[in-house]
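Quick one, T. Sequence first:
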Amino acid sequence: MPETSDSRRLEASTLLVATVTSFVGPYLISAVNVALPVIQTKFAVSAVMLSRVATHVLPVVHRRIYGTDGEN
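C-alpha cells:
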C-alpha cells in the first residue's frame, strides 16, 4: 500500500511532537536548576526549601507536558 501525503504528514507531525516533548521536560528542569541560586538569594530561602523547589518541578513539568500525573 503506497503512502499518501496525509500519512506522511501524520508521521512528520508525530515525530515533531515526540521530539519537542522529549526536549522540553529536561530543558525546563535544567533551567530551574540553573535558577536555584538566584531563587535562594531573591527569596532568602534555606537549602531545604530550595531542594523542595527542585523536587516539585518534575511532577509539574510532567503534568504540563503529558496532561497526567502518572497515576492511572
